[in-house]
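#struct-help
A.M.: can someone run this one for me? Single chain, 275 residues.
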Amino acid sequence: MLPPKEENHAYISDEDQPKLELTKANRQSKICDLLHEKGHVSVTHFSRKMGVSEVTIRKDLKSLEDTGVVVRTRGGAVLAEHYKFDLPFRKQMALHAREKNAIGQAAASFIEDHDTIILSSGSTTAAIVPHLSQFVGLTIFTSSIRIANQLIEFEEVELLMPGGFLYKPTASIVGPYAKDMLNNHRFKKAFMAMDGCDDTYVITSASIMDASLQQTMLEVASETFIVADASKFGRSSLHRICHARDINHFITDARIKESTVEILESNGSSVTIIP
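D.P.: on it. Structure tokens below:
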């Protein structure tokens, strides 16, 4: 009598298990990177990007949701709001680095000697700083510890920083003391970052503390700028800063949709697009 035919199952040894776990970990890390970059990503896009089945992606998303990293949506996922802060600043700077540098250079073209300006916290506003060495007599207010650290080397810059609470996720000084200091000054220009501009053209931030301070920045500046790469349009974070109509200028990159530009301009804002 012949022995029963063995089923064609691949045998996985204990030695192979760490390799499978590492592959899963790498895949989930890439999922988080894509969500940081895009805001919302579909299961189909994840599947094509990583060369695995949609079933596998759904299992990964379920695992990430169980640990509080993502929130699954119909057909895809977004990062949980609190997890957005876990992206290291150097990694934020690396995302769309070429675009951010070009946006920073374009933003600097709006600055003149002896201007009084505000730089909000953010990797794109930080990209403005290297282009400020050409100016004299600047007075700059920033709530960002990282931006202030860059500006220490600029002899021609008078640096103002608020008192208040150090909000570690964004390395910025926030709270009522910071707002009170801002309210006692008036600035010519405010350059601000954003985490999203949604389909209703509401500008948002992932941090309620930063959003509150940015609202005060709008009140004390004569001219307002949003500096953001195009991936921030069409996405949303939790906390409202303002409507797009409250911003004088947007500086972004060429990936922005023409329809978005048309609506921003119809609301009275100018749009500068870097190539």
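A.M.: thanks! Residues 17-38 form the longest helix (22 residues).
D.P.: also worth noting: The mean pLDDT is 84.
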